[in-house]
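Pipeline run #58 for the internal structure catalog. This entry was flagged by the ingest filter as a single-chain record with no existing model, so it goes straight to prediction. Upstream metadata was stripped on purpose; only the residue string is passed forward. Reviewer on rotation: M.T. Logging verbosity set to normal.
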Amino acid sequence: MEQQLHVASGAAAQRNGLDRGECAGVTFSITELADEFGLTTRAIRFYEDKGLLTPERRGQTRVYHPRDRARLTLIVRGKNVGLALSEIKEILSLYDLHDGCETQNRVAVDKFRKRIAQLTEQRTEIDLQIRTLEESCARLEAQIEEQVKEARKSGVAAKAEAKPAKTKKPEKAIV
C-alpha cells in the first residue's frame, strides 16, 4: 500500500475531512486516537513525554485537537518509514515557523532523501547476502546429491535410509 508522508499539519486535517472551519471545537480523547491509529494509550503518552504532542489538559483528562491528530499522523508515518523520533520532532517543530511550511518541507525532504539512501544501501547489502546464501544452498545441495550417489554405490544408502528401530522405554520397576 502506498503511503504518503505529508508534512503540513493543516493539510493533514483537510485530507481527513476537516477544513479549518470544522476544526474549531472538534476534539478527540486519547482512547479515540489510540483506536484510530492502532496505538496504545501509553504510546501516545510517550510521544507527549517526548514533546511531540501537546494536548490540552482539562483536569486529569487529555483533550486532543485536530492539530494533535495531524501531528500523530505524521509521527506514525515517520516511524513507519524508519525516522527517529528526534527527526520527527525536528520536522514537527518547524511547523511553528509560520512560513507556509516551506522550511518544514525542505527539512523533511532532506531527511526523506537521507532515509532513502540508507534503505537503498541496506537493500544492496541484503541482495548480496541473499545471493551468497542462494549460492551456498546450491553448492551444499549439489554436495548432498553427490554424497547420496556415492552412498548408494557403496551400499551405505540402504543402511542410512533405513529407519532406526524404535526402542521401547523401560518400564518402571514396581518396588
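catalog note: Helices lie at 9-15, 20-23, 30-37, 41-49, 66-80, 85-93, 102-154, 156-161.
catalog note: The CA atoms of residues 166 and 172 lie 18 Å apart.
status: ready for reviewer M.T.
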